[in-house]
Amino acid sequence: MMHYDLTDKQYKIMVVICEGEGKDVGGKLIPVDMDRLLERLAYRTNKSSMQFSIRALIKHGFIVKDYDKRRGAKRVVYVPTKAGMSAAGYAPPASNSYVQPDIEGFLARA
Q1: Residue 41: pLDDT band by 50, 70, 90 thresholds?
Q2: Domain-by-domain residue ranges, the chain?
Q3: Angstrom distance (rounded) from CA 74 to CA 103
Q4: Residue 106 has pLDDT above 60, yes or no
Q5: pTM for the full model?
């Protein structure tokens, strides 16, 4: 993958995604969904603008989409890849505390 520098806004998005909603009892990252991402972001934006930024981060391999049932509905959640964590200045967690998303499985469901 080519080297890619994050913009200031992309960096702020990646920080929220890398921190997620904390960790579950097993120590695994709980991914953030769009509504929580918009709430926790250090700047104000709308969903369509955020979706544009998300697509760019997916294109560069920094995040992947997954699905989770939350607040009574199936929601898209955003999971950082190891490259994304590195680009945002986070050390990838130990393999027992992080599950790399199944990108092939996701693409098959899409």
Answers
A1: very high
A2: 8-109
A3: 19
A4: no
A5: 0.78
